[in-house]
Amino acid sequence: MNPxxxxxxxPTLLLALAGAGLLHAQQPADADKxxxxxxxxxxxxxxxxxxxxVDGFYLRDVPSAGLPRLKMSDGPMGARNDGPAxxxxxxxxxxxxxxxxxxxxxxxxxRDARARGTHFLLGPGxxxxxxxxxxxxxxxxxxxxxxxxxxxxxxIQGMQKQGVSATVKHFxxxxxxxxxxxxxxxxxxxTMREIYLPAFEAAVKIGHVASIMDSYxxxxxxxxxxxxxxxKDVVKSGWNFDGLIISDWSATYDGVEAANAGMDxxxxxxxxxxxxxxxxxxxxxxxxxxxxxxxxxxILRVAMRFGWxxxxxxxxxxxxxxxxxxxxxxxxxxxxxxxxxxxSNLLPVSRGSIRSIALLGPDAHPAIPSGGGSASVKPFAxxxxxxxxxxxxxxxxxxxxxxxxxxxxxxxxxxAFTTAGGRPGLQVEVFGNKDFSGSPVATRIDExxxxxxxxxxxxxxxxxxxxxxxLSKEAHDSxxxxxGLYSAAAAGSYRVFVESPTDGVAGFRLSIxxxxxxxxxKLRKAIIDQNSIELSAGKHQVVFxxxxxGFNFLGDLVRVGIVPATGLVDPAAKALAAKAxxxxxxxGYDNDSESEGGDRTFGLPIGQxxxxxEISAVNKKVVVVVTSGGNVxxxxxxxxxxxxxxxxxxxxxxxxxxxxxxxxxxxxSGRLPFTFEKRWEDNPAHDSYYPEPGTRRVVYRSGVFVGYxxxxxxxxxxxxxxxxxxxxxxxxxxxxxLKQLDGAGKYEVSFDVTNTGKREGAExxxxxxxxxxxxxxxxxxxxxxxxxxxxxxxxxxxxxxxLDPRSFAYFDVPGKQWKxxxxxxxxxxxxxxxxxxxxxxxTLERALAIAVSE
Length: 854
Ligand code: BGC
Known about the structure:
Bound molecules: beta-D-glucopyranose
Radius of gyration: 27 Å
Distance between the termini: 30 Å
Strand content: 25-35%
């Protein structure tokens, strides 16, 4: 372990131990007796009232049972709901491949929760990354079920030791954000067991998570909140889960079905699971009292497990401004950033050799700690790349900053329209239905399409919505058409975008001269969608249409821009770049363009490809730093730049960490938690990420071959493989040995890792298992263990990890169990999924069977 990890870990561990005494005060048998007695005291009405939330994020108190009002808060990258709090990276945490750090991050977020009286923290999120466009990848832990599960389990353990229940989400198949309330994932049993369930399974079996959140979407015909197979058979009976299953916010559609399908708590209110629905159902025998009792029993069991009935949840000894949390966030940013390209060892740059750095781009300042939506936590202070670099360099060098390209709002406002009658602007017609039928209920002229009602998503989530806007919760269907003319000053290439964040059923389409330019009518593919077109000089007919049904928690912002491709890059930025010793280009997304509630584009937002290309034409020393939850299309500029750092959303301390990495104070040790594709078409999920034509059904056709499993199966070369990341030093592997521990699939794998370079650094040793000649089609290799090891120059450490029967197994569908065929396997050890350094054959003399409960 890194010494700096230890430094901030020790106080966390001490606090955790102090808190632990509170946690297991009650022995299970005593607890059961106490719960039985409390159940007797509660009326049926009280029980039903308890299983539906109240006031957005609470469960009602039950004075007769001594149960206090229980408070929930988002999650996952900080305790969001009560003003500023520690904000850490999400996918950045997975990119650290450091479970010790993950535990401390969970612990610090848990401590923030205790300081704020929160009982349930709504995280971690472990949905598997299929496509870089998924708007919530930044909250999750990547494409590999093993990595994701181990990071999640450690985070949960850290958090729960603080007396706070973690809530692993979003169960299950919520692997995209477009149309998230309606999409139905069709996943076969084996794929579900091997790819999509294991991170949840690790959360339950290793992390002992107390709560699971059911997602919005459907899996195999049923919404998750009404999915008895997944909630009851797989989780509760199969994994012996005795905690709670809660709904995502407004993800319940039928109270009786949800009650019977194993969902325990409806959030944010009992809109469906309430007395009006359930009492008659109990009378007619559709729901039993025992079913309701089981839910209440689970709530009481969790409350007792964490001591909530015996002490105050608000711990006033914990400072709200949490210094250990700040350090955990910093360490996550340091260890999570991934150095992907470093031509001619341009990095690190030494302080003495640099007099000027041009720090350019939209993500340089202000800081962008996280993507958007419910995971967006406001820190007390966030260090932007500009702050970080300027502070780190001090007087030794100048940092010249420029945004480089216009903002979306500026692009929209620079797009000049005229109406058919020659007035500036566009004719707007608003209809009280979603398909423009009848006469408009309102008409007006908008000078530009840049329209925003007076609230933002942050205000809304913080409950600061002005009274008048609360009315829009009752919003009905609407459709709006803008029409007019756009005058192209010169013939040439134009960039076009539509920004329309909508968490719900909505669509938009833009046509120019009658031809569709952006069509997100049936499927809203991106919150901000974009395209390029060629226009002749002169006037062009523009029609933009948008519809929406119901309330939209992301607000009703609508922007449209049409701008010439030339001239996007500010000449001042180019001038700064031309005379700088080094250029750092901070590009990517932000909490508007990459957010919960929708997907994003694979291509960088408008102007950024141009920015990178035009800047790298005037300076050869360009390092691109990408802020995003996943890969972006780098094909238009990657060969022209010398350096590439994937910064993810680094949390509140990103600027400090980036500066330390650029200047060599920290040696990069982040590794990719998913494969980076050269082109989206190369991704194994490419043909099955969107619904089948004319349906909302997404058939998971890639089966178990997702991520690196798929690239290897299909023989496709990725841009950067899973597990990849560069260091300022080099590592050598040797002396692999395998020790059989029990004759039944347990092995100890040991090997040496040596730092052969001149700097201290950390290596992530990755251990994969490949099955040769299996009776079912299997991936060439699968990650089964990893270990992060810090080494001084010249130092060698022996690393040991354990493999168990599950390391060799696939899910045997007819047998409803895990199975490892007898025969040969290979244990592979290396830097990444594509850089294997050591390998050894293992033979299982007999087949192994493992029950789902194990
Ligand atoms: C999100 C959840 C979140 C909940 C409460 C939902 O929209 O999907 O992840 O925990 O809101 O904010």
